[in-house]
Design goal:
The protein has 223 residues and is an alpha+beta fold. The chain is built from 4 helices and 5 strands.
């Protein structure tokens, strides 16, 4: 066989092999595509259904009980606010004071009296608590009893008709009157009342301030 014939035979064989390989590649690609299509249609997991919880038919509410906090003003620091007699706190205290007078019971008058906790802050003495109780409060209560007695048999019908407070309040500095703190002080106030068809008056010897409010510290006299 000549070399030329061999070359022609080799070229024919190579052409047939290329055709066979190309056919196999086409078949393989088609098979892979069909497989992927089948998996895409039939083997993907079904979508999950999320079940929502049923709506509650009852409502639960939590109620927090309100709390009230009463702060003793005497535990707070002093201020330089000048008090007025139109202050609602003072007016309420004055009403309680007059109730104490007409009923001969000093208890309702105590909110208008200078607080012990503030007195402890103000006074530079060895035992301010004892002085407050045994001297100041004792005198205050005795003066209320005496004022009640002065109203006579119709004391329970007595009406407070007014209160005059001088406009000469002074800011008392530490070092005065055994003080380590300061306050406004006004002396010589005068209360007025009517009872049994007559009018009368009574002194409030001294009031001092705490945080912008007036408090009685001496009623009939400074002692």
């Amino acid at each position: 066989m000549t070399n030329r014939a061999q070359r022609r035979r080799y070229r024919r064989r190579r052409s047939r092999a290329a055709v066979i390989i190309a056919a196999l590649v086409v078949v393989t690609i088609a098979g892979i595509g069909a497989l992927l299509t089948t998996r895409g249609r039939g083997t993907s997991p079904p979508a999950r259904r999320v079940r929502s919880a049923p709506a509650s038919t009852t409502t639960t509410s939590t109620t927090i009980a309100p709390t009230t906090t009463t702060i003793d003003p005497g535990t707070l620091p002093q201020t330089m606010d000048l008090p007025t007699t139109s202050d609602p706190q003072f007016q309420a205290g004055l009403a309680g004071f007059w109730q104490a007078v007409v009923t001969d019971d000093p208890a309702p008058a105590m909110p208008l009296f200078f607080p012990l906790s503030a007195y402890i802050q103000v006074k530079s003495i060895s035992d301010p608590t004892s002085d407050w109780n045994q001297r100041l409060v004792a005198n205050y209560q005795n003066d209320i009893h005496a004022l009640h007695a002065s109203l006579g048999p119709a004391a329970s019908t007595a009406q407070l008709s007014g209160l005059d407070v001088p406009a000469n309040a002074q800011w008392i500095q530490p070092g005065v009157e055994y003080n380590k703190g300061s306050y406004w002080r006004v002396e010589g106030s005068q209360g007025h009342y009517t009872v049994g068809g007559r009018t009368g008056s009574f002194p409030i010897a001294s009031m001092i301030s705490w945080r912008g409010h007036w408090y009685i510290v001496h009623l009939a006299r400074i002692a």
